[in-house]
Specification:
There is one protein chain. By secondary structure, the chain is mainly α. The protein has a domain at 80-145. The chain is 73% helix and 0% strand. The chain contains seven helices and no strands. It has helices spanning 2-11, 18-22, 29-55, 58-63, 69-78, 80-114, 132-144. Helix 1 (2-11) packs across helix 3 and helix 5 (69-78) packs antiparallel against helix 6. It is elongated and about 55 Å long.
Length: 145
Amino acid sequence: MFFGFAAAMLGSSGFESSANFVEEQAEGVFPKTLRNMWLAVTVLNPGMAILALALVPIPEVRDEYQNTLLSHMGDTAGGTWLAWLISFDAILVLSGATLTSYVGVTGLVQRMTLDRCLPKVLLRESRRGTPYRIIISFFILSVSV
Protein backbone atom coordinates (compact mmCIF):
# COMPACT_ATOMS: atom_id res chain seq x y z
CA MET A 1 0.00 0.00 0.00
CA PHE A 2 2.81 2.39 0.92
CA PHE A 3 4.80 1.81 -2.28
CA GLY A 4 1.67 2.16 -4.41
CA PHE A 5 0.80 5.43 -2.69
CA ALA A 6 4.36 6.74 -3.09
CA ALA A 7 4.48 5.88 -6.81
CA ALA A 8 1.04 7.40 -7.34
CA MET A 9 2.11 10.64 -5.67
CA LEU A 10 4.45 11.22 -8.57
CA GLY A 11 2.57 9.43 -11.33
CA SER A 12 -0.93 10.85 -11.11
CA SER A 13 -0.59 14.15 -9.32
CA GLY A 14 1.39 16.19 -11.82
CA PHE A 15 3.61 17.25 -8.95
CA GLU A 16 6.73 16.95 -11.10
CA SER A 17 5.60 19.81 -13.36
CA SER A 18 4.31 22.16 -10.66
CA ALA A 19 7.70 23.87 -10.31
CA ASN A 20 7.19 25.53 -13.71
CA PHE A 21 4.03 27.19 -12.49
CA VAL A 22 5.40 28.41 -9.15
CA GLU A 23 7.09 31.39 -10.79
CA GLU A 24 3.83 32.43 -12.42
CA GLN A 25 1.51 31.92 -9.44
CA ALA A 26 0.46 34.62 -7.05
CA GLU A 27 1.81 34.62 -3.51
CA GLY A 28 0.25 31.86 -1.38
CA VAL A 29 -1.29 29.87 -4.25
CA PHE A 30 1.31 27.09 -4.37
CA PRO A 31 0.56 25.73 -0.86
CA LYS A 32 -3.10 25.44 -1.87
CA THR A 33 -2.13 23.64 -5.07
CA LEU A 34 0.08 21.25 -3.11
CA ARG A 35 -2.69 20.60 -0.57
CA ASN A 36 -5.18 19.81 -3.34
CA MET A 37 -2.76 17.40 -5.02
CA TRP A 38 -2.11 15.58 -1.73
CA LEU A 39 -5.85 15.38 -1.04
CA ALA A 40 -6.65 13.95 -4.48
CA VAL A 41 -3.87 11.35 -4.28
CA THR A 42 -4.77 10.40 -0.71
CA VAL A 43 -8.41 9.75 -1.59
CA LEU A 44 -8.30 8.40 -5.14
CA ASN A 45 -5.33 6.01 -5.09
CA PRO A 46 -6.15 3.94 -2.00
CA GLY A 47 -9.79 3.95 -3.12
CA MET A 48 -8.85 2.48 -6.49
CA ALA A 49 -6.62 -0.13 -4.84
CA ILE A 50 -9.38 -1.22 -2.45
CA LEU A 51 -11.91 -1.33 -5.30
CA ALA A 52 -9.53 -3.46 -7.37
CA LEU A 53 -9.06 -5.89 -4.49
CA ALA A 54 -12.83 -6.05 -3.95
CA LEU A 55 -13.73 -6.74 -7.59
CA VAL A 56 -10.93 -8.98 -8.86
CA PRO A 57 -9.09 -11.75 -6.99
CA ILE A 58 -5.31 -11.26 -6.82
CA PRO A 59 -4.37 -14.49 -8.67
CA GLU A 60 -6.69 -13.48 -11.51
CA VAL A 61 -5.02 -10.07 -11.72
CA ARG A 62 -1.58 -11.65 -11.81
CA ASP A 63 -2.48 -14.25 -14.44
CA GLU A 64 -4.92 -12.52 -16.80
CA TYR A 65 -5.45 -8.80 -16.17
CA GLN A 66 -2.03 -7.45 -15.33
CA ASN A 67 -2.13 -4.85 -18.14
CA THR A 68 -5.89 -4.25 -18.42
CA LEU A 69 -7.05 -4.23 -14.80
CA LEU A 70 -8.96 -0.93 -14.87
CA SER A 71 -10.98 -1.77 -17.97
CA HIS A 72 -11.72 -5.23 -16.54
CA MET A 73 -12.90 -3.59 -13.31
CA GLY A 74 -15.19 -1.36 -15.38
CA ASP A 75 -16.52 -4.38 -17.26
CA THR A 76 -17.15 -6.22 -13.99
CA ALA A 77 -18.78 -3.27 -12.24
CA GLY A 78 -20.79 -1.68 -15.04
CA GLY A 79 -20.54 -3.57 -18.30
CA THR A 80 -18.85 -3.10 -21.65
CA TRP A 81 -19.71 0.59 -21.93
CA LEU A 82 -17.84 1.37 -18.69
CA ALA A 83 -14.80 -0.62 -19.83
CA TRP A 84 -14.71 1.43 -23.05
CA LEU A 85 -15.17 4.68 -21.12
CA ILE A 86 -12.25 3.79 -18.82
CA SER A 87 -10.07 2.90 -21.82
CA PHE A 88 -10.92 6.22 -23.50
CA ASP A 89 -10.15 8.05 -20.25
CA ALA A 90 -6.77 6.28 -20.10
CA ILE A 91 -5.98 7.61 -23.58
CA LEU A 92 -6.86 11.14 -22.47
CA VAL A 93 -4.73 10.82 -19.32
CA LEU A 94 -1.76 9.56 -21.33
CA SER A 95 -2.14 12.47 -23.74
CA GLY A 96 -2.23 14.89 -20.82
CA ALA A 97 0.87 13.33 -19.30
CA THR A 98 2.71 13.67 -22.61
CA LEU A 99 1.72 17.33 -22.90
CA THR A 100 2.78 17.88 -19.28
CA SER A 101 6.21 16.42 -20.00
CA TYR A 102 6.68 18.83 -22.92
CA VAL A 103 5.59 21.79 -20.79
CA GLY A 104 7.89 20.66 -17.98
CA VAL A 105 10.97 20.11 -20.11
CA THR A 106 10.44 23.37 -22.00
CA GLY A 107 10.35 25.33 -18.75
CA LEU A 108 13.35 23.46 -17.36
CA VAL A 109 15.51 23.95 -20.47
CA GLN A 110 14.55 27.62 -20.72
CA ARG A 111 15.53 28.14 -17.08
CA MET A 112 18.81 26.25 -17.53
CA THR A 113 19.58 28.23 -20.67
CA LEU A 114 18.92 31.53 -18.90
CA ASP A 115 21.23 30.33 -16.11
CA ARG A 116 23.91 29.70 -18.79
CA CYS A 117 23.99 25.92 -18.31
CA LEU A 118 22.89 25.26 -21.90
CA PRO A 119 23.61 27.12 -25.17
CA LYS A 120 21.59 30.25 -25.87
CA VAL A 121 20.62 28.94 -29.31
CA LEU A 122 17.87 26.89 -27.61
CA LEU A 123 15.98 30.06 -26.67
CA ARG A 124 15.22 31.00 -30.28
CA GLU A 125 11.46 31.23 -30.78
CA SER A 126 9.12 30.99 -33.75
CA ARG A 127 6.87 33.85 -34.85
CA ARG A 128 4.24 32.60 -32.42
CA GLY A 129 6.65 32.63 -29.48
CA THR A 130 7.25 28.87 -29.28
CA PRO A 131 10.75 27.66 -28.35
CA TYR A 132 10.71 25.14 -31.19
CA ARG A 133 14.33 24.04 -30.81
CA ILE A 134 13.69 22.81 -27.27
CA ILE A 135 10.56 20.95 -28.36
CA ILE A 136 12.24 19.31 -31.36
CA SER A 137 15.30 18.38 -29.27
CA PHE A 138 13.11 16.78 -26.61
CA PHE A 139 11.15 14.88 -29.26
CA ILE A 140 14.35 13.52 -30.82
CA LEU A 141 15.73 12.58 -27.40
CA SER A 142 12.48 10.84 -26.43
CA VAL A 143 12.26 8.90 -29.69
CA SER A 144 15.88 7.81 -29.43
CA VAL A 145 15.30 6.37 -25.97
